[in-house]
Write a structure and sequence with these properties.
The chain has about 290 residues and is mainly α. It has eleven helices and no strands. The radius of gyration is 18 Å and the shape is globular.
Length: about 290
């Protein structure tokens, strides 16, 4: 499940980078969350999982999760816009590291020396990879602001992840996700210029629909993984999303030259990528 999350999240920043050139961050966020909310309502209604008692029980904490989730969405997309897909993706993993550490404090999950070293290697290697990528291929004018937005988005995501993990212990993770999506979509609704959707090109419109689908698939698998696996393992495996983003971007840059820029890095950056993969392998071992 966590590996599917990684693949979904790896594609998202690449497509956002293309769509955000024509559509601001807020309308993108509202469309993704709105479509995901409608899909989950339809699916969970057919499964008879939406009950008044269940929604009332999880409402207080899910509202808090939705608020921070909305903040994560906005800051993440701004980070991608200002500093590129890899920067936004890797800095979001600050949230994954925070979630991993919270698992030992809030959920009494065991954190062995092996898993601790694996987490440090995975996150540290990913940060080294991104730093070198920024030095080689990035621009400096908007990079700092993009980094700040990425850090804010990562911290906001960690609060959402903690709330999701807690609620998934006793409630359907998909129902929790529905409530989170609905709250976040409601926040973005009054800020959205709906006429901006009519100005999109065919390619951007298609990618916007794909982004909505990836939103559901990525977070669906994430909530399932959190339910059955320790937060430290799930969050660290998901931290490979930046590597997936670079790999997918490289492949698409070959297939669609001129549309998707190729991610570049130095030898030190690639060493960081290898280090992060080793960290994931270490932390995933029982």
């Amino acid at each position: 499940m966590a590996l599917l999350t990684t693949l979904s999240w790896g594609c998202i920043p690449i497509f956002i980078k293309i769509v955000i050139a024509e559509l601001p961050a807020v309308p993108i966020a509202f469309f993704r969350l709105g479509c995901a909310t409608i899909f989950l309502i339809f699916l969970l209604s057919r499964q008879r999982k939406i009950t008044r008692t269940a929604v009332t029980t999880i409402a207080p904490l899910s509202i808090l999760a939705g608020l921070f989730f909305a903040g994560h969405y906005y800051f993440f997309m701004r980070s991608v816009q200002l500093a590129g897909p890899a920067v936004g993706s890797v800095l979001t993993q600050i949230g994954a590291l925070t979630l991993a550490l919270s698992g030992t404090v809030l959920f009494k999950e065991k954190l062995s020396v092996q898993k601790c070293l694996g987490a440090v290697a995975a996150i540290g290697g990913m940060m080294l990879f991104q730093y070198e990528s920024g030095e080689v291929g990035g621009t400096r004018e908007s990079h700092t602001l993009g980094v700040i937005c990425g850090v804010c988005g990562g911290l906001a995501w960690s609060v959402y992840g903690i709330c999701q993990k807690h609620l998934s212990k006793e409630h359907s993770p998909q129902l929790v996700l529905l409530c989170v999506f609905a709250v976040a979509a409601t926040i973005f609704s009054p800020l959205t210029d709906f006429s901006s959707y009519l100005e999109l090109s065919f390619v951007s419109s298609l990618l916007l629909l794909v982004l909505a689908g990836l939103t559901v698939s990525g977070y669906w698998t994430f909530t399932e993984a959190l339910k059955y696996a320790p937060a430290v393992e799930v969050s660290t495996i998901a931290a490979c999303a930046p590597l997936a983003a670079v790999g997918i971007a490289t492949l698409l840059s070959w297939l669609l030259p001129g549309v998707i820029p190729k991610e570049e890095s130095s030898l030190i950056g690639y060493f960081g990528a290898v280090l992060s993969i080793v960290g994931v392998i270490v932390i995933s071992r029982r």
